[in-house]
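Holo model, zinc ion. Inputs:
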Amino acid sequence: MRKDIALMNVSSSEILLGLKALCRKERKLQSDFLAYLNAVEDRKLFAGEGYSSLFSYVTEHLGYSESSALKRIHVARLCFKYPELYYLIADGEVTLTSLQKVAPHIKKENAERLIKSICHKSVREVECLLAGEFPKPLMPDSMKPLNEEAFLIQFSADKDFMDKLNQAKALLGRKYPSGRLSQILGEALQLLLESEGKKKCMPPLTEQIPIDPDLKKAIEHQELLKDLMGDPMRKNTPRYIPRGIRREVWRRDEGRCQFPRPDGGICGETRFLEYDHVISWSLGGSSQALSNIRILCRTHNQWRVRQEFKNFTLPSLQNRHK
Ligand SMILES: [Zn+2]
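Output:
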């Protein structure tokens, strides 16, 4: 039966009492949820389940939206530092949203006062309180030369700009893994100069002079040979994975972490990727065999190494006790 229909014969006062009881229960559950979240993060349990971060575990596995996940993770970390917050949340004295807003401003010396000041306040009231106590002035644009080749550029930007910047960073994550602003904005400026310059018949200054097609073919042939043979300078190093193998693995694994999940899927992370030997090169695993090389994210590469280390040391310890 539909739950709201089931309530048809319940008296109004009982419904109000029931709702209050549920509200108390929900707050208690919220507080418990944060404690469990902290345990998952503390023990890195998400990695064993095939996720590269607590955030991807909470969004992809537990099904929370990105903003809900971020809120819970930020507040859980705050509770980890200031455990009295678990009780304030369970008692309904503070909300998760208020705590998320105040989290970046909390320091040891102001924690007690700030937490007290947001108790029983609406989110809007907390925002006003924070804007009063921690005003953020807009910075005027500035450009200063650091040396002959480099400049320090500062400017204030609105949220729309930040959203676009984050999207661009994600798009160019493979090309620029460190995601430096100068790289991302440089790429954007290059595109602008090309498109606007074309309209005005002004090709950008950095446009390359066309290469003689025969010369280009010769260079490509050389590159291909190098890829197939590996770099002769390094081919005696067993750990070194030849460029041709790396390129082929990248294509096969579609630039995604291949760490398997218990449900049959893979982690799929696209940032901070590393090439991994399925059988370690130190245990004789080949760097030349496509089947022995795969892509893992940094979290899972480290996780795998830790597991291997565990498996490797346990038998010898047992032997010692015999
Ligand atoms: Zn991964």
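The chain has a mean pLDDT of 84. Residues 52, 257, 259, 267, 269, 296-297, 299-300 surround zinc ion (CB under 6 Å).
Archived with the compound record.
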